[in-house]
Design a protein that fits this description.
single chain; alpha+beta; Beta-lactamase; 5-stranded antiparallel sheet
């Protein structure tokens, strides 16, 4: 064996011994209050435990800011209360005279109320919000008056609505305290809650099938992420109302005027779940022992081996001019959420040519002994 081959073998053995002796990666520590205070980007934030009502984090919760599309929480709630989610709407020309987002609706077509609700909750479509507002109250102006009346009824004292969709130029405002009150009421409606955590929905309108993807980019990515409503305009920046559940416990947050709601949401939920007090003990309903016939049968022990999933190394992809996360995801046949999970970003909607993205490959199961 030549000297070169001996040198190569020695190097490989040395590298293998170093790898085997390397210490395990320490677990990631949850953020402390000091870290949250220093890294939170939102101008206003509120995090609470709905089970106990405990406020886990609060920052300037009575300061007013534009709500952007979180306005649609009230639009959906009020329309649902008025209609029960039943009936149909014939689209009027005035409904379409707004930036549509993704549908768009066509004048004269008839759409079920339930589909319009999904359109604004999942797809955040502005023309659908206008159609629902006009049809349920007789006019958009009356619907906005009804929105403000409902806000006063709920105790949202620092909120003022001027349109049902949240586009800028109206001067409407809210606070994270008021937005939390609205979000709690919205989540009390089972059907609306279900819509707000639907990841993908196929909406059928006059122009065909629209494949709507929930604007909440943490849905299916952040552990336990549940129903939420996003918002963004240049004036409002990022706004958000979101719920997440881990270990059987739910937390809810509201954010206003954030430079990056995805980063803020991870930070606050990580902090909240790490500092969550134990659930209060349930009330004792009965002290009677169970009937012997009601005792559960012993469960069989599962003997099937666990299938280990070994994630392969990601692909390194340089962003090209004109790329978006959607086009890149389609090119590599992965989800947008998967790319975001591998690449923490300040703004997922802003890609810079030459920026390197880590694209996940599909995992393959490894053989088990």
């Amino acid at each position: 064996m030549g000297n070169t081959m001996k040198h190569i073998l020695f190097t490989l053995l040395l590298l293998g011994s170093v790898a085997l002796s390397a210490p395990p990666t320490p677990p990631v520590k949850p953020p402390t209050l000091e870290v949250v205070n220093s890294e939170l980007l939102a101008k206003s934030a509120l995090l609470l435990d709905p089970l106990t009502g405990e406020v886990l984090y609060a920052k300037d919760i009575d300061d007013t800011y534009p709500p952007a599309s979180t306005v649609k929480l009230m639009t959906a709630l009020l329309a649902y209360q008025k209609t029960g989610g039943k009936g149909t709407v014939t689209v009027a020309a005035q409904d379409t005279r707004v930036e549509p987002s993704t549908v768009p609706l066509r004048t004269g077509e008839t759409v079920p109320v339930s589909e319009l609700l999904r359109s604004i909750v999942i797809g955040s479509d502005n023309d659908s919000a206008m159609a629902l507002a006009r049809s349920t109250s007789g006019s958009v102006g009356q619907f906005v008056a009804d929105m403000n009346a409902e806000a006063a009824k709920l105790g949202m004292t620092n909120t003022r609505f001027y349109n049902p969709h949240g586009l800028p130029g109206s001067g409407q405002r809210t606070t994270t305290r008021d937005l939390m009150v609205l979000f709690n009421m919205f989540l009390s409606k089972t059907e609306l809650r279900r819509m707000a955590q639907t990841q993908i929905y196929n909406l059928k309108t006059a122009i065909g099938i629209q494949h709507m993807r929930n604007h909440n980019k943490l849905l299916g990515v952040y552990p336990g992420m549940g129903p939420a409503k996003t918002g963004w305009t240049y004036e409002a920046r990022h706004t958000f109302a979101a719920s997440a559940t881990q270990g059987g416990r739910e937390l809810r947050l509201t954010l206003l005027k954030s430079a990056n709601k995805w980063k803020d949401t991870r930070l606050l939920f990580d902090y909240g779940f790490a500092n969550l007090a134990p659930a209060p003990a349930p009330k004792l309903i009965s002290t009677l022992p169970p009937s012997p016939r009601e005792e559960p049968a012993p469960q069989e022990i599962a003997t099937k081996p666990v299938e280990l999933i070994v994630p392969p190394e990601p692909i390194l992809y340089p962003v090209r001019r004109g790329d978006s996360l959607t086009t890149i995801a389609r090119r590599f046949r992965v989800g947008v959420e998967d790319i975001i999970l591998f690449n923490p970003m300040d703004d997922p909607d802003l890609l810079i040519p030459g920026q390197i993205l880590r694209i996940p490959r599909k995992s393959k199961p490894s053989s088990t002994p």
